[in-house]
Amino acid sequence: MKSLAVTEVSVNRLYKPLVFLILTFFLFSCKKDGDKTNTSFLKGYWSYLNGAEAYYDGVSNYAKGTKVPSNNAGFDFVVGENYWQNLHQTSDTTWNLDHIVRTSNGLKTYNATTFKKMDENTIMSTITGYGTETLTRRP
Questions:
Q1: Count of structural domains, the chain
Q2: Threshold 0.85, pTM exceeds
Q3: Using one digit for the tens of pLDDT, what is the confidence trace for 10-33?
């Protein structure tokens, strides 16, 4: 009888970690798939009214600048720098992020920003302290 009790205890000790590992794997796999779906709308090139452009790869939490504004004198935007960072979705049509802001003396900051999907090719961007701007998907 003693050996039966030891076997039951040993089996119970194995099940708890196994169940925990399965649940952990399930939670992380669901999160990963959700993130890809959440940001897929933003994938591509986005043009600004001032001629600047950013590219978002649909996976990371940042977008790189691919074009500087038409008038870049004193602002010093650089191709390849993060125009967006810390991107995360808050609803089906809304994202929060930190958006690059450069002043005419070249000072660079990142301001809290909200993107709202207007239609399949347009985002309304609201940058804290700077108002709104429309970004358009480049074909």
A1: 1
A2: no
A3: 556 666 665 565 655 555 554 444
